[in-house]
Fold each of these.
Amino acid sequence: MKRIALAGTALVAATALALTGCAGAERGGGTDEGSGEETTGFEAGSTIGVALPDKTSENWVLAGQLFTDGLEEAGFEADVQYAPASNTVAEQQNQIQAMVTGGAKVIIIGAKDGKQLATQVQAAKDAGAYVIAYDRLIENTEAVDYYVAFDNFKVGQLQGNALLEGLEANAGHEAPYNIELFSGSPDDANSAVFFGGAMDVLQPKIDDGTLVVKSGQTDLGQTATEGWLAENAQNRMDTLITSTYGGDTMLDGVLSPNDTLARAILTSVQQAGKDIPVVTGQDSEVESVKSIMEGVQYSTINKDTALLVEQTIKMVGQLQKGEEVEVNDTEQYDNGAKVVPSYLLEPIIVTKDNAAEAYANVPSLLEIVESYN
Ligand code: BGC
């Protein structure tokens, strides 16, 4: 298996979790375990800070609302802040610092740039607060206590598999298939992990000639989408079409790391008058779920934000009571300074075929799926 370099350290991608679908290899059959760290508890009703990045996808918008409601329901004071779209890193640093000064007991952080928060996270620790990295890892600091996320490497593997399956089912011809690869923003630690998971599946098929990346752009750096911005993906796709897919040259598939970028890629291809390729995604955004049901976008990933927020609030409750915090992975997420004890949830692949089943517990999306039946 490929190893992913994260923060200059090898992220030990000996992903027992990703391969077996359970976190149990060394932990007694997939049962949850405590982090083994002492927690001391704090007063009920304390303030909990939640620092979220800019709203680059629907999941971030939803998370803010769910944290506000869920923390208050659990008896805490919630201080939920988004970093604005401009000057995002500095603003997020200030917001976290203000949460520390304001006496927050736990600070939950969806990092804009996980490499630029070490000072603020250390300040939180020094003030006696706990820090939970939410969805995106915070790098190069020992002061981050826990990480909670969907299994990012597995997300990538599911995307790679979906691309392959979609090509076999829909390309309308036998292999080789022409594909292009897109990855997420370089300041988000998840981007390398998603891409690593996808390439774990796709690289052998590139090596054996089943897949051809016609542009030759297969590195994380070449495929990156700065800021996770749709316009950047659309521009890169436009450029690739001009440089590589002129005339009748077929573009059979595109690995897209999320739905926002998938739709931008599809717009570019459609504007160029090309046939619709198999395009992957992630996040189950409303417009992408519709697109999948209409047979345009091929796949997405269901990472139910409600479950992730619920798990995070559960951790906060354990910290408040001074209990051991439940984690299920203590190997995968080396942030460059330590392996961060993590609770990883299982992502679910969604195509038109399994959408009703995949969204059985997400009423708003199920309703959309059912409206196409
Ligand atoms: C999240 C993805 C999301 C992306 C852009 C990532 O860190 O894990 O779900 O698509 O950020 O917002």
Amino acid sequence: MTNNEKVGIYPGSFDPITLGHLDIIRRSSGLFDTLIIAVLNNREKNSLFSTDERVKMIQSVTADIKNVVVKSFDGLTVDFAKAEGAHTLVRGLRAISDFEYELQMAQTNRTMSPEIDTIFLTTDQRYAYLSSSIVREVASFGGKIEHFLPDEVVPLVRAKYK
Ligand code: PNS
């Protein structure tokens, strides 16, 4: 990466990636030369999909966005951002209920690494209610998940609850 290349990082669990995430990816990809989707390798969390599965899923649904790269990381997001030459973290904000946690994370990250800023994109109203955990819950009861997920992801989530 050259020094003046603008690299953004969109970190998250993406378990699984939803249409809300994809909307944030599409919109924020226009703000950077390269947008890295950083999938947390959350070992202690009981995730539905393995890190590899989540990376592959996101690669598949973002294949048409040329400046998006998908990687996984361990440890602190700011350390990963530094290692990748990124100075901006991207997060989506759905409702006021997200704000406290997001502010806490952004301020913690900024205290640790003042050279890295967090920017927030407000979630499209169509997806304001949506979260990966809600999707997992609906899927676990055999509910309809087509409204929430990219088409390729629907059968993968269904298969987990067969
Ligand atoms: O999709 P999520 O689960 O809301 O994403 C949360 C994530 C991955 C951005 C956050 O947990 C994170 O950055 N984890 C890595 C560890 C870290 O850097 N912690 C300090 C920030 S409080």
